[in-house]
Amino acid sequence: MTYSFGLFIAFGVLSLLLFAGVLLRRAFPIFQKWMIPACILGGILGFIFINSGLTSLETSSFEEITYHVFNLSYMSLVLTPFKKGGGKNKSIIRGGLWMALISSLILSVQALTGALSYGLTNMIGLTKQAPVWLGFLATHGFTQGTGQALAVGNSWEAFGIQNAPNVGLFYASVGFLMALFIGVPYANWAKKHNKTVIPEKSVKTGILKGLYSSDNQISAGMQTTHSDNIDTLSYHLAILGICYFLTYFLAFFLSNHVLASSGALKVLPFSLFFLPGMFVCLFVKQVLKLLKLDHTIDPGIQSRITGFCVDYLMVASMTSISFSLLLPYLSGILVTVLAIGAVTFFLIRFIAEKLPELSVERFLCQFGCCMGNTASGLLLLRQVDPDYETPCAMELVIFNIIFVLTGIIYLVAPAAPKFGITTWSLILIGNGVIMAVLLWLFGFLKSEQKKEV
User: How far apart are CA 160 and CA 145, in angstroms?
Assistant: First the structure.
């Protein structure tokens, strides 16, 4: 019998890259100062390795891993139990709503900025008629991260937008780095000028180096099953595996029956696999509750599974990028990246400064999310709130739930080329106007007197 090791070799390479990232973070103070995660350092090494010509490994293997761990990370997040916060729930929900509206507004702003950037570089001859759609794609890399950039990119490639997945992954990777290199100095400036709620604290060596000492380790979660029956980690993975299994059949049904005659749209259930997956996870959670087994899902263990997926997602996505495919569009990409970074920073900062409380903390959360993902938002928040004493971390959870509604435009994004550039631009403008109006109606655009938390 012949065994296939292709996927496991790719997994082994990613594991080596992650471990190399851990060693680099531990050894070099510059990486500690900027709090760069091991997955990003490993991803940079992977990008160099895969484009060096020293390996025969194909980027397709890493793209496949990126696709699946992205879906699993979202589904695992939905399975994680949510603990109610008592009397602060109203404030937390309002904070989460602000974040969701901001993120949905930025989604439109970034897409239009990217399209204008490509139009400009085409007009002045920096690029040779690069598709403007690659500019629209930028927001799915920045605001929605690697997995969505790959999903939308694959869908747009089916409409004839060549190399869209590769460009999308590049946006997502560069966005995460920009979140750190812009967000961390801003956080330091805010602390220096006493603009943060939590007084500045010395950052522990364990956090800087990214490793706990032998006498300062913490629990990863609680065991909810007896080991002579099934290991707790196996149980949690089994529940997630069941959800993924059921989602496949749901996506297959939607693709081959509901959308069978819709042409290119029939790929949407698999391009947006995480979306039906989220609803399947909600259904499974209700089934567990009916069976009186909901207590067997431990937040700590489930969070570790989510963290595992996110780490491999980041390193795999950066290793999937082929630099040679980026070269024809490099000028447009660089102009787009710089323009979006500036617009995102100043727009979110302008709106955040109108908040009566936690303006710096909420700005850092959303700037991180809109340039990378929820993980980068938490990373920037930790610069000013290292022990998560403010409600902002919980607001990020609420934000991800509300964004399913406010960010509904991303549901049709995979089919955007079918609408055409003009129609899609008008849709984006309309979405931006709606989000701005909602921000005003909920009182988020009114300058209020700052108050203490």
Answer: 22
